[in-house]
Amino acid sequence: MSQNIIESTVAFVKEKLEGAEAGHDWFHIERVWKLSKKIAQNETCNLEVVELAALLHDIADPKFHNGDEELAIKISREFLESQNADTPIIDQVLFIIKNISFKNRNEIAENPPIELQIVQDADRLDAIGAIGIARTFNFGGFKNNLMYHPEIEPKLNQTKEEYKKSNGTTINHFYEKLLLLKDLMNTETGKKLAEDRHNFMLSFLKQFYHEWNVD
Ligand code: ADP
Ligand code: NI
């Protein structure tokens, strides 16, 4: 693998994400990159594809770009072509960027490539545990959402109606997404690493309600 292309991608991503919301900034990318490499050690995969996809996966998140789903693909394709990456590598990296998101989880083809499974696990691990909690409250603050509303009982597997009623509180995001991630991990390493992080969120929620209710 050419070390050069990884280095130039790091520089490109750091520059692009200058000033990004703290949950989706260069440091999120760096953690996902490191986690991806750690998971990849236990899998047979193309490491160059894994690393490039980890580095580029949030280069233009639709949430921060008026819902534009195509922008990240366009930017990544242009960048990788400018670096003379091989076409099959480019295609695999773009496939991962397109399919990694939690909200598109039902659309992924059966038997997703191992490289997608690895980067998706890494991205999901960074969404749970202590870091996941911090990122979630940071995002909620960024959006000026309520942390919690005592009259709305958050629950797992909510319908669209229930979600609307949840008012998008940050605590609701745990039930809407974060607490589901442990069971969606693809790799054995991912599953193992998710355990601790999941349990930490459960203790956090318990303590949160305890303090909120002053009981
Ligand atoms: P994905 O990239 O897997 O589709 P998102 O970008 O929606 O996932 O979420 C990434 C992280 O952003 C979440 O794990 C969470 O920390 C934060 N986030 C996204 N939506 C919300 C929300 N409605 N409330 C609080 N945090 C959120
Ligand atoms: Ni991400």
TrEMBL record:
Residue ranges of domain HD in the record: 25-128
One Pfam short name: HD
InterPro entries linked to this entry: HD/PDEase_dom, HD_domain
Species for this entry: Kaistella carnis
Protein name: HD domain-containing protein
Residues in coiled coil: none
